[in-house]
Amino acid sequence: QVQLVESGGGLVQAGGSLSLSCAASGRPFSRHAMGWFRQAPGKEREFVAAISSSGGSTYYANSVKGRFTISRDNAKNTVYLQMNSLKPEDTAVYYCAATPRTASTYYVTGASYNYWGQGTQVTVSS
């Protein structure tokens, strides 16, 4: 089992920044790729970003590329999502998730992830 706890959400004006953190405990964090997903009211959950277990490879949804940065610190069992130039359409509950899969083709699909956090709300006002 891997337990995940997100933090760092909040209310920010458009154009502002927020940094999310996801602390992991349980099975070796360094053996899991990590992803961030989000779900806005009335919408399907969508992929935001992912990072390989070593941190050497990162992947982004087109909608956040160039604005968001995913990173991880395996010594601290934590994955981060730095969000810049936020837009009202970024408003959602953000979830971190962990998967033992190593093929990047799986990373954009929520069903590939075994473990999920409880989510943290991000609200961007216009």
Would you kindly provide a written description of the structure presented here, covering whatever features stand out?
The chain is an all-beta fold and 126 residues long. It contains no helices and 11 strands. Strand 4 and strand 5 form a beta hairpin. The mean pLDDT is 96.
The percent of residues in helical segments reads under 10%
| Helix and strand pattern | EEEEEEEEEEE
What gyration radius follows from the Cα positions, in whole Å?
13 Å
How far from one another are the termini?
40 Å
Mean pLDDT rating:
96
Which structural class do you get from the secondary structure elements?
A: mainly beta
Shape: globular
The largest sheet, given as strand count, sense and whether it forms a barrel, is: 7 strands, mixed
